[in-house]
């Protein structure tokens, strides 16, 4: 079995066509070319199947490449570089690479990366002999889709299997008047004509907090509003508190447990009215009120399908919809709605459609949150372990105690390991700080193999590195477990 540079294993042998194959134009039709759709198409093509991908013009790579993951993470890197945030520990709070950062400075890098990624996605699909159809797709019947291009021309073709990977768009409450200038959603942020001096971010979920931290680093006075009492409630509370402390140090204000009653706009900006009676003046308001599955134009009823009020399609453990030959992956099926998980869902859907053996390691999928600083975790949380009465110990390493932490100027980062007291099995990894989204994969690999912290205690890690935090945290947990055991000795 070979492995190509697009990350999908190649076929062992060309499969023989089945009688069903000849009744359809394609073995697999994929609607959407984002992370899930792209990997589904390539996986099926590697199995020797006839594959078509439908994507709207100028949206190759889907939302992830054009308005979501790639532009937002590229923007983050531009902010980190131009503001000199990572170097301020060394050179002082006033250190900046560029004193007057413009919106053009930020988005020049973003547009360059988007252009390159679009070409990479297109090249990978064409290299694997996937047919690309430009336009908007809609079901005609459970096996047939109709594609309408920008000129109104319509094309119909059928697929033995179909994968819906249309992604999502920002949810826009009916009560909010978006003007694309002062009141925007998370897509509209990428079209701002200047860096705002002040901003209200409505929504303390992943996208809202990511953008809040970026603009705070640029010097924007940010206020975060959410009717929920906590932000990033899926994360470890200690990690969330560390991020909140860091954001407050960047002059971010929090209005949690507060609901927005309305937003007034005028020549001098906006005023956000809260249900409690408070009013917040700001240049810009960004709504991050969740995502809406892009299914409204698919004519799902013709395929025997339906979506919920947020446009999401229900699937089973194999990513099959209520119609067995139709699969759905990515944002359109809901949580976790991350590019990384969507890629794996696309691969698995294609394999299961064609009865190819596949293994899913869902229990150890990492979550990466690209705030400034980063957060990443894998496995279980302390609350979950406590609820299930699992005996565990905590091992902690702080970046300020690592030589590499001093070198890179990160005095606030931390890594936390959750360890089973009896089996010494690694149950969870929670990281806050520089390179958190990369470091988490070490713990993920150990957990996927059923490993224990003894591996981390016994192994030699490069010095000086941030990876060393694993050994420090493992030793911390081991010492705590040993102290309890010694207490019980006669």
UniProtKB/TrEMBL annotation:
Residues that bind NAD(+): 203-210, 290
Compartment annotation: Cytoplasm
Subcellular location, principal: cytoplasm
Broad class of enzyme this protein falls into: oxidoreductase
Any single GO BP term: 2-oxoglutarate metabolic process
EC numbers: 1.6.1.1
Molecular function terms from GO: dihydrolipoyl dehydrogenase (NADH) activity; flavin adenine dinucleotide binding; NAD(P)+ transhydrogenase (Si-specific) activity
InterPro entries in alphabetical order: Class-I_Pyr_Nuc-Dis_Oxidored, FAD/NAD-bd_sf, FAD/NAD-binding_dom, FAD/NAD-linked_Rdtase_dimer_sf, Pyr_nuc-diS_OxRdtase, Pyr_nucl-diS_OxRdtase_dimer
GO cellular component terms, semicolon-separated: cytosol
Record flagged with keyword Membrane: no
SUPFAM superfamilies per the UniProt record, alphabetical: FAD/NAD(P)-binding domain, FAD/NAD-linked reductases, dimerisation (C-terminal) domain
Domain annotation FAD/NAD(P)-binding: ranges: 26-346
Annotated stretches, region: Disordered: 1-20
Cofactor note: Binds 1 FAD per subunit.
Pfam families per the UniProt record, alphabetical: Pyr_redox_2, Pyr_redox_dim
Binding site for FAD: 73, 166-168, 331
Keywords: Cytoplasm, FAD, Flavoprotein, NAD, NADP, Nucleotide-binding, Oxidoreductase
Cofactor dependency: FAD
Domain Pyridine nucleotide-disulphide oxidoreductase dimerisation residue range list: 366-473
Function, in words: Conversion of NADPH, generated by peripheral catabolic pathways, to NADH, which can enter the respiratory chain for energy generation.
NCBIfam families, sorted: PRK05249.1 (NF003585)
Annotated family: Belongs to the class-I pyridine nucleotide-disulfide oxidoreductase family.
Name of the protein in its database record: NAD(P)(+) transhydrogenase (Si-specific)
Organism whose genome encodes this protein: Cellulomonas biazotea
Native organism taxonomy: Bacteria, Bacillati, Actinomycetota, Actinomycetes, Micrococcales
């Amino acid at each position: 079995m070979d492995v190509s540079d697009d990350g999908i294993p190649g076929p062992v042998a060309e499969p023989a066509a089945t009688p069903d194959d000849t009744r359809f134009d394609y073995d697999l039709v994929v609607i959407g070319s984002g992370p899930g759709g792209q990997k589904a198409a390539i996986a099926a093509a590697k199995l020797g199947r006839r594959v078509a991908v439908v994507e709207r013009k100028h949206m190759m790579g889907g939302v992830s490449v054009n308005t979501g993951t790639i532009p937002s993470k590229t923007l983050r890197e531009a902010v980190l570089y131009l503001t000199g945030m990572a170097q301020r520990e060394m050179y002082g709070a006033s250190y900046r690479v560029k004193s007057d950062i413009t919106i053009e400075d930020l988005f020049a890098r973003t547009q360059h990366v988007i252009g390159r990624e679009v070409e990479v996605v297109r090249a990978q699909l064409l290299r694997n002999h996937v047919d690309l159809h430009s336009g908007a797709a809609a079901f005609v019947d459970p096996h047939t889709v109709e594609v309408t291009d920008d000129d109104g021309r319509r094309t119909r073709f059928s697929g033995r299997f179909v994968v819906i990977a249309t992604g999502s768009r920002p949810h826009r409450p009916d009560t909010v008047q978006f003007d694309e200038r002062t009141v925007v959603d998370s897509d509209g942020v990428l079209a701002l004509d200047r860096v705002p001096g002040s901003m209200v971010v409505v929504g303390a979920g992943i996208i809202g907090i990511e953008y809040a931290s970026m603009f705070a680093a640029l010097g924007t006075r940010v206020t975060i509003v959410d009717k929920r009492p906590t932000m990033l409630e899926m994360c470890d509370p200690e990690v969330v508190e560390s991020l909140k402390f860091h954001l407050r140090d960047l002059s971010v204000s929090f209005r949690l447990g507060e609901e927005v009653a309305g937003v007034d706009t005028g020549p001098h900006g906006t005023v956000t009215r809260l249900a409690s009676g408070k009013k917040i003046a700001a240049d810009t308001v960004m709504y991050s009120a969740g995502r809406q599955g892009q299914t409204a134009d698919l004519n799902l009823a013709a395929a025997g399908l339906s979506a919920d009020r947020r446009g999401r399609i229900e699937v089973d453990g194999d990513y099959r919809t209520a119609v067995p030959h139709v699969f759905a992956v990515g944002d359109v099926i809901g949580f976790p709605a991350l590019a990384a998980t969507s890629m794996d869902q696309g691969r698995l859907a294609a394999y299961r459609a064609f009865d190819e053996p596949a293994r899913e390691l869902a229990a150890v999928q990492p979550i990466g949150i690209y705030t400034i600083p980063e957060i990443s975790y894998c496995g279980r949380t302390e609350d979950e372990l406590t609820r299930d009465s699992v005996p565990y110990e905590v091992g902690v390493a702080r970046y300020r105690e690592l030589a590499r932490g001093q070198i890179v100027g990160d005095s606030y980062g931390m890594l936390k390991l959750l360890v089973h007291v009896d089996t010494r099995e690694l149950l969870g990894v929670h990281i806050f700080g520089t390179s958190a989204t990369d470091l988490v994969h070490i713990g993920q690999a150990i957990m996927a193999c059923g490993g224990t912290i003894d591996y981390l205690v016994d192994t030699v890690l490069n010095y000086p590195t941030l990876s060393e935090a694993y050994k420090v945290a493992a030793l911390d947990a081991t010492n705590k477990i040993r102290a309890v055991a010694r207490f019980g000795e006669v």
